[in-house]
Write a structure and sequence with these properties.
- Two copies of one chain form a homodimer.
- By secondary structure, chain A is α+β, with helices and mostly antiparallel strands.
- Chain A contains six helices and five strands; from the N terminus they run H-E-E-H-E-H-E-H-H-E-H.
- Chain A has helices at 4-21, 56-68, 86-95, 106-111, 117-123, 140-151; strands at residues 29-34, 37-43, 77-82, 99-104, 134-136.
- In chain A, strands 2-1-3-4 form a four-stranded mixed β-sheet.
- The first copy, chain A, is globular.
- The mean pLDDT of chain A is 94.
- Strand 4 (99-104) of chain A pairs parallel with strand 5 (134-136) of chain B, so a sheet runs across the interface.
């Protein structure tokens, strides 16, 4: 019998190849599994949907959350054909799955032209030293909205 | 005359309040500007769209890219009511705008219950020490797909 890890990773890799061959985006695929069943899937669709955030993991997380009717992926496993980039890592932490499995590493990705390392380095730099300048414009109204949020009753925390 | 920075930040903050009041998600708004015109906007819509990736910046980036017909935000400025979380920072680097302006800081966000610091700390940990376990399942087929990508002609790089 096929190992379930192998089965799900194989599907993620099939998605990576079919998306690439159809010109949807780079060679990345992802499936999300709960209780042994696939509840979400996606391939990199940056070119196809003209959306720089449409990485395989993000597409699959959105798909799974829609299907579950929940913005949390409690008890789910993510199988992705490549180690997630910093954006997708952030998305994974917000979605809170149980585990993540990946095949290719970020070093493998860098070798074929997808260099996440640059982003990791930028995240660790002070705002003033980043390639894209980030500047604070302090604003009393923004502060007020946060205070209103803090006082809001019956809000859903996520 | 109103300073353009103030004008655009004010709109981002208005989006943060209206999204919160409508129960779409947390108190976060974002507008994207090119040549003095708003080309994209969004508020946090995590609850409304059941999508943990629907942070204000991501929603606005998707909106702007669709309108421009481009997956890059060259020459654009992002105005966001709060300093971006690690996921949105990653998205911003992939979209490559010119500049980012924010009002509230991530410390302000933590005080009202949005703790990005946890994610920043996790990103810096080795995979084996993270709260969500990340495990490599090396796979020859995944490696083969990357090699096919490297050899693919006429591919669009992004």
């Amino acid at each position: 019998m096929e190992n379930p890890h192998e089965k799900f990773m194989k599907l993620a890799i099939e998605l990576s190849r079919s998306g690439m061959m159809q010109g949807k985006g780079g060679p990345f695929g992802c499936v999300i599994v709960k209780d042994g069943k696939i509840i979400g899937q996606g391939c990199n669709s940056v070119l196809d949907t003209i959306d720089p955030t449409a990485h395989a993991e993000i597409v699959a997380i959105r798909d799974a959350c829609k299907k579950l009717g929940d913005f949390q992926l409690e008890g789910c496993d993510i199988y992705t054909s490549c180690e997630p980039c910093p954006m997708c890592l952030g998305a994974i932490y917000w979605a809170r799955p149980a585990r993540v499995f990946y095949a290719n590493t970020k070093e493998d990705a860098a070798k074929v032209g997808f260099d996440d390392q640059f982003i990791y380095e930028e995240l660790d730099l002070p705002l003033s030293e980043r390639k894209i300048p980030f500047s604070q414009l302090p604003n009393e109204e923004a502060d007020k909205v946060f205070k209103e949020w803090a006082l809001l009753n019956n809000k859903t925390l996520y």
